[in-house]
Write the structure tokens for this entry.
Amino acid sequence: MKRIINTNDAPKALATYSQAIEINGMLFISGQIAIDPGTGKLVEGGIHEQTQQVMKNIGAILKEAGYEFKDVIKTTCILSDMNNYSAMNTIYGSFYPVNAPSRAAFAALGLPMGALVEIETVACLDVTRNV
């Protein structure tokens, strides 16, 4: 059965989409940008601060759905500029110290609200249960 996931600890959707959808033990989190859910505004600072907020938003959605970062199996990182890749990767990597998920990363022009990074996430409860 499909379950819609919403939490006030992550930004509200900017358009017609859900923060996340869970189905058959898998969680699909929509692309998150560095919006502070308390203010509804993009956090100040550069790629480090934005990546930290994106990961915080993802963590809030994971928690609301009953998942953890260790359950993440795939991410897609979208950057406004590939020159920010290394800095983004440093912060991102701190959330996955072992057994990092598979990932794609690329640049795209015009992320919402002028964001520097957007990350979408897929998690699966079955991944770590027998490890």
